[in-house]
Specification:
alpha/beta, ph1033 like fold, 4 domains, 26 strands, P-loop_NTPase
Length: about 575
C-alpha cells in the first residue's frame, strides 16, 4: 500500500473536485421535481432516513394534500429527476426515478401506515448540503418552501440552477430543445417592440407564444414546453394577450370610463385597460428591483385582506376617522363599498376605483367623502409596505402580445403611447418622457422591461396597415411558408400554388402558409374548405383564375357551372 501511494502521489494530490466544472443534465422530455423528507428531519428519525437511503426510496404520505400525493403516484415516470431535501435542514442528493409503480412503506419502518415510496437511483450527492443561504426563499421549489412534492417547471429551471443546483450540487439542468440565451447573467436584450408579419397560416400567433416566453425566461424551447410556461405566466400577469378589432379603442387599451351597471341611473366609472395594467406591474417590478427592495403588496391583495371578515363571516369592519369617530364597512360589491356613517346614515357609497387612485396618488378627493376615503387609503398604504426582511425583488420582463395589431385604428388606440414606446423615451432612458393621462395620472411612463409583440396578417387589406409613425417604432420579423414542415406531396403542392399566386399578385403578402396543411384534416378537405375559399377571396371570385392556379399541380380542380361546385380529384 505504501508503494502504491508512493507511485501515485501526484495523481492523489491532484485528485480534488473541480469546483467550477458543472455536470450538465439534459432532461430529454423528462420532468424535474423537488421531494422533501421533512417529516423525518429530526435526530430521532435518522434510522428511518437511513432505511430510505439504503433502499434509495423517495417517500410521501398518501394523505398529503393539494394533489401532491396523486402527482407522486401518477405523474412521476421512469427517467424523471428529483432533488431530495430533508425539509429545510439538509440538501441530500439528486436522483433519477426507476421503472415501476409506487408501493407502501412497511409500517414497522415508519411506525405509521400510509407512507408510500418510489424507487430512484442516486446520481449526484450535494457538494454543499447546507441550505441556510436559501432560507429566505419561500417558493415551493426551495427546501424551505411549504411543499412536499412539487415540479420545477421549465420557467423555473434557470432560477433553480442558479440558486440550488449549481452552488449546492455542481449540476445544471437543461430542458431538451431549450437553449439558454443569457449573456453574462443577464437576459439577452430583445427589441422592446416587435411585429411578426406575414401571409396567413405561417405561424405568427403560434410563434408569438414562443417569443413571449423567450423574452420573459431567457430560454428558447419547443412549443409544447413554451405553451405550458405561457399559460402559467399569463395566469400570473407577466404575459398578457389581446386581439385588436375595428371597434377597439384607447379606452379599452389605456384608460377611460365605462357605464356602471350596478345603479339604475346612468353613471360612469373609471376603467383601466390592459396596457395600463401591465405597464403598472412592469413599472413596480422595475423600481423595486432597481432599489433592491421587496415588492410592495398590490392594492387588490391588501383590500382583499381587509374585507375578508365581510366575505367569510359577514362581519362589518370599523375604520377610524381622523376625528376619532368610526364608520363601518358593511358590504362590498365588485366596484362599490357600502358603509354606515357614525351618525347611522347609509345613503353614500365609496368607489373602489377611486379608493385605489387615492392610494396610488393619482387622485385627491375634495368632496365631503374625503373623510371616509382618506383613513381607509392610509390603512391600505401601511399594509402594502413590505414587512421585515422581505425578499429583494428581481427584475422581470413583461410581455403584451397584440394579435392582429393592424385590425384596429392603431393611431387612435395608442394615442400618446406612440411616443412613449420608443426605447430612448422609456423610463430611465436617455430621453425619458412621462405624460399626464386623461385619468389624472401625471407621471405615466413606459418601463424598459415591458415588451410588445404584435402579429400582422399582410393579406388583410380590408383595413389600413400600420401607419408610418408606429411602423418606425417596431422591428418587423417576417414569417413565410415553410415547406419543410409538411409531407413531401403537400409541400410540393403548396409550393406550386404559391408560385402561381406570386406570379399574379407580384407580392409575398398573399401567399398561403404551411399551417393550413397541419390541421389534421385530409388534403381534400383542406383544399375544398380552406384553400379554394381563400383564393376566391384573393381573386375577387374569379373561378377561371383559381382553376388556372391549380393547373399542372398534383390535383385536378375544376369548377362545375351546372352544380356551382368544385370538382376536386387527386392526379395519380
Amino acid at each position: 500500500m505504501i508503494k502504491l501511494y508512493s507511485d501515485n502521489k501526484n495523481l492523489i494530490i491532484d485528485d480534488e473536485p473541480i469546483k467550477d466544472k458543472l455536470l450538465t443534465i439534459p432532461l430529454n422530455q423528462k420532468r424535474l421535481y423537488k421531494i422533501s423528507h421533512g417529516s423525518f428531519k429530526t435526530k430521532a428519525n435518522e434510522s428511518i432516513r437511513d432505511v430510505f437511503k439504503e433502499n434509495q426510496w423517495i417517500v410521501i404520505h398518501e394523505n398529503t394534500g393539494k394533489g401532491q400525493a396523486e402527482a407522486f403516484k401518477n405523474d412521476l415516470t421512469e427517467g424523471d429527476y428529483v432533488y431530495i431535501t430533508i425539509g429545510g435542514n439538509e440538501l441530500f442528493t439528486i436522483a433519477k426515478v426507476k421503472a415501476g409503480s409506487w408501493g407502501y412503506v412497511p409500517e414497522d419502518i415508519t411506525d405509521e401506515n400510509g407512507w408510500i415510496y418510489r424507487e430512484v437511483e442516486y446520481i449526484k450527492s450535494a457538494t454543499n448540503p447546507d441550505p441556510s443561504p436559501l432560507k429566505s426563499f419561500k417558493e415551493f421549489i426551495y427546501p424551505s418552501g411549504n411543499s412536499t412534492f412539487t415540479e420545477i417547471t421549465i420557467d423555473k429551471i434557470e432560477e433553480a440552477n442558479t440558486n440550488i443546483f449549481e452552488p449546492h450540487f455542481g449540476v445544471e439542468f437543461i430542458s431538451e430543445g431549450a437553449t439558454k440565451i443569457k449573456v453574462q447573467g443577464e437576459l439577452q436584450k430583445h427589441p422592446n417592440n416587435i411585429i411578426l408579419f406575414g401571409p396567413p397560416g405561417t405561424g405568427k400567433t403560434y410563434n408569438s407564444i414562443d417569443k413571449a416566453v423567450e423574452i420573459v425566461t431567457g430560454i428558447k424551447s419547443n412549443h409544447e414546453d413554451s405553451k405550458v410556461i405561457f399559460d402559467k405566466l399569463k395566469k400570473e400577469g407577466q404575459i398578457e394577450f389581446v386581439t385588436f378589432h375595428q371597434n377597439y379603442s384607447y379606452e379599452d387599451f389605456m384608460v377611460g370610463i365605462r357605464p356602471d351597471i350596478e345603479f339604475e341611473h346612468l353613471r360612469f366609472k373609471p376603467y383601466r385597460g390592459i396596457f395600463y395594467e401591465i405597464a403598472k406591474k412592469a413599472r413596480e417590478n422595475y423600481f423595486a428591483s432597481k432599489e433592491q427592495t421587496a415588492l410592495a403588496k398590490s392594492f387588490d391583495q391588501v383590500f382583499s385582506e381587509i374585507i375578508k371578515p365581510i366575505e367569510e363571516k359577514n362581519e362589518s369592519i370599523e375604520i377610524t376617522m381622523v376625528s376619532g369617530l368610526k364608520y363601518k364597512i358593511t358590504d362590498v360589491s365588485d366596484t362599490t363599498i357600502h358603509f354606515t356613517k357614525p351618525s347611522g346614515g347609509t345613503q353614500h357609497t365609496l368607489s373602489i376605483q377611486t379608493l385605489q387612485d387615492v392610494v396610488e396618488g393619482i387622485k385627491e378627493v375634495t368632496s365631503g367623502l374625503s373623510v371616509y376615503y382618506n383613513p381607509l387609503a392610509k390603512l391600505i398604504r401601511e399594509k402594502r409596505k413590505p414587512v421585515g426582511n422581505g425578499q429583494t425583488e428581481k427584475l422581470k420582463n413583461f410581455v403584451l402580445i397584440i394579435d392582429e395589431i393592424n385590425r384596429a385604428n392603431i393611431s387612435k388606440v395608442f394615442g400618446e403611447l406612440i411616443t412613449l414606446l420608443e426605447e430612448d423615451k422609456r423610463i430611465d432612458a436617455k430621453n425619458e418622457l412621462r405624460l399626464t393621462l386623461p385619468n389624472g395620472d401625471k407621471e405615466f411612463g413606459v418601463p424598459p422591461n415591458l415588451y410588445l409583440v404584435g402579429t400582422m396578417n399582410t393579406a388583410d387589406k380590408s383595413i389600413a396597415l400600420i401607419d408610418i409613425a408606429l411602423r418606425r417604432r417596431f422591428e418587423f420579423i417576417g414569417y413565410f411558408p415553410d415547406y419543410s414542415k409538411l409531407e413531401e406531396s403537400d409541400g410540393v403542392f403548396l409550393k406550386h400554388i404559391n408560385k402561381e399566386i406570386y406570379s399574379r399578385k407580384k407580392s409575398a403578402d398573399y401567399l398561403i402558409g404551411h399551417a393550413y396543411f397541419m390541421t389534421g384534416l385530409d388534403t381534400f378537405k383542406i383544399i375544398k374548405n380552406k384553400i379554394i375559399p381563400l383564393l376566391m377571396e384573393y381573386f375577387s371570385g374569379k373561378t377561371e383564375v383559381v382553376e388556372e392556379i391549380f393547373k399542372n399541380s398534383s390535383w385536378s380542380i375544376k369548377y362545375d357551372i351546372e352544380k356551382y361546385d368544385w370538382i376536386i380529384q387527386p392526379i395519380s
